[in-house]
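TA notes, week 10

Several of you asked for a full example with nothing omitted. So below is the full record: structure tokens for the whole chain, then the designed sequence directly under it. When grading your own attempts, check the secondary structure regions first.
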């Protein structure tokens, strides 16, 4: 039986889809509350910066953004295929390289906090 990388791709796609559908809306609502000037006390700049500077906070932020990037890269790949772009190898390479580059950039950003 030939080995395949499909479980890795589908695993990140499924986990990223869960993150995007369950956690991202909550983050958006909290940011909207902060933007209109009525944030809960835990949403102040100092509290959020302290969370992002903590190793566990960096891990949480990385997990959310990483899984979202890879899920959407796969979703864009499938969308291009559905629109008739049949060069699937090239499209997959471009989107996954972009997701990988964005993940590395995220590591650099989080390490500078």
């Amino acid at each position: 039986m030939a080995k395949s990388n499909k479980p890795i791709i589908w695993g990140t796609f499924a986990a990223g889809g869960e993150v995007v559908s369950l956690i991202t809306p909550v983050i958006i609502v909290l940011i909207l509350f902060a933007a209109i000037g009525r944030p809960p006390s835990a949403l102040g700049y100092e509290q959020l910066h302290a969370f992002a500077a903590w190793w566990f906070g960096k891990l949480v932020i990385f997990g959310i953004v990483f899984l979202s990037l890879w899920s959407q890269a796969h979703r864009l790949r499938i969308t291009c295929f559905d629109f008739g772009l049949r060069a699937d190898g090239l499209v997959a390479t471009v989107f996954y390289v972009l997701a990988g580059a964005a993940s590395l950039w995220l590591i650099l950003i989080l390490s500078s906090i």
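The mean pLDDT is 82. Use that as a sanity check on your answer.
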